[in-house]
Amino acid sequence: xxxxxxxxxxxxxxxxxxxxxxxxxxxxxxxTKLKIDEINLVSSYYKQDGNNSAVTGGIGTEELTDISNxxxxxxxxxxxxxxxxxxxxxxxxxxxxxxxSDRIDLQANSSASSADNRFFPSITYTRENEEKGNxxxxxxxxxxxxxxxxxxxxxxxxxxxxxxxxEFTAKFQAYLDQVKMILPVELRTPTSPTGTESRNTxxxxxxxxxxxxxxxxxxxxxxxxxxxxxxxLPFHRVYFNDGTVHQENLPDSRLKIPLAARASYFLGDxxxxxxxxxxxSDDWKLTAHTLDLEVPIKLSPFFSVSxxxxxxxxxxVKYFEGYGMHDGSxxxxxxxxxxxxxxxxxxxxxxxxxxxxxVFGIRHFHTLEMRYGHYAKSTxxxxxxxxxxxxxx
Length: 393
Hints:
Strand 6 and strand 7 form a beta hairpin. The chain is 4% helix and 57% strand. It has one domain (2-22, 32-392): Porin. With 393 residues, it is mostly beta strands.
């Protein structure tokens, strides 16, 4: 945990100097020079365990730990014509250890994937005409780890209604990925593929938000997502009922359609009720429902708590069977329990601290937030996550 804490404090001196150079009366000032609008330092620790690893055919340890550190810098400037230009630059790195990935070679500490780092930078530019209420955005991202490389891009357009109480947003995203072909050791032959296979994802998203009155806000969301290419993972084993072992084999295309609704109700000045529902279906015959509820409660002008709960349930894809249950009659097969039928519960608490004089006595250290959540699946997998967010504004 020392690494997590030091990540945030390493920039403390730099941000202190930046805070001192900002004019005290700059609240309503529209700078024509590029300036820092907000910085978020986010660190998290995640740990899970279970006994349905896809690497060993649906049985075996799912033990995994992940330490993640991210810095998100938002820059802002106004053009001479009043156009608002925003830049969002995010750089993150994960370090994980995975006992299940270590079983690719069926010998402890033998797999290069037993521990790995993931590096994921991104940049987004937005151009907003506040008078007309429209915003154009464009972004690029990448993610790199030992056996996976992803490049992404997105464009978006938002338009507010005349009274500024409603907003329509359209967004298109594309991810072009390469999967390294690391087969289970017993399935490797001199002719086995050793390079990479491509996987492409394209998503079109529509949303509309509306302020109903001073207490209620709602949002509706719809997505269409298509994937094509190598959609299996090469090191996932599948054991048939005759005792033979095979490499996971899934179709090379998938169509996903999620639909969702979100609502926020302000119950007086100190309580907000936030609710979210999502329905998901795809052409692999997986359907899912998500219900999420969070209730931020302001206990004082500078301190609030946010208990939250999420329930999730899904059916299995038509290609799933457990360990030793496939009979070989299917063209496609998997024993990945993420694609099985299960229910899950995720619950926890967030704490937000926003003192008048700033966190650590620095005025521009606007907010310190901590969140803890416990996750439990009906497949006997469980996980815990702790995150810390320090906001400079």
